[in-house]
Amino acid sequence: MFAQLFVLxxxxxxxxxxxxxxxxxxxxxxxxxxxxxxxxxIDGDIPHLNDPRRHYTQVLNVIIEGxxxxxxxxxxxxxSHYPEIVNASLAQGLxxxxxxxxxxxxxxxxxxxxxxxxxxxxxxxxxNGGEHANQLISEKITLAGNLKEQNEVYLSVGEAAEALVKxxxxxxxxxxxxxxxxxxxxxxxxVLKDVIEKTAQVYRQLKSRQGINVCN
Length: 216
Known about the structure:
This protein is mostly helical. The protein has helices at 2-14, 21-38, 52-69, 78-95, 97-128, 133-144, 148-176, 180-186, 193-209. Residues 1-17 form the signal peptide.
């Protein structure tokens, strides 16, 4: 406990920047709501292809599978790897929609089970911390003393959530126009790149917790 207090005091004295927990939680909440509306809502009752949710789930599968594929130790160049990601995930997302929905649901549940203690601290900090919420949250996590790995997962998820929120209007537009296949295949401006790379980091954190060495 004394060591933790010492580290915390040093961090405050040196003015170390606190992670943007408040912004991350806002992004995570927004992503969960979006996934509930456009992915999880079709679980067990997959609609016809004229439902935009089928197409949103399809492009989400590109992100999820791309992140998992790029979570290893030796990661190939993104531009050369991306066509392989699309070929492996795009058709699957449309043809095997229930499997994709189940995978995304399981992914969310796994992350929630790991980060629930962090989320409780963050939500309390958002409620009671005011303009100092990020500092209060960081202090509580540090003082807990046993949340380092959970915190690392949460921060990775927060970064991925912010990346998804940023591009979500494009995903929704493509889904509503039934154009997710064209959107994902062409993606000339690498719209999906950042969220795929951030999702890959989430997978690395999860594999590390499972004792999987991604470099083996």
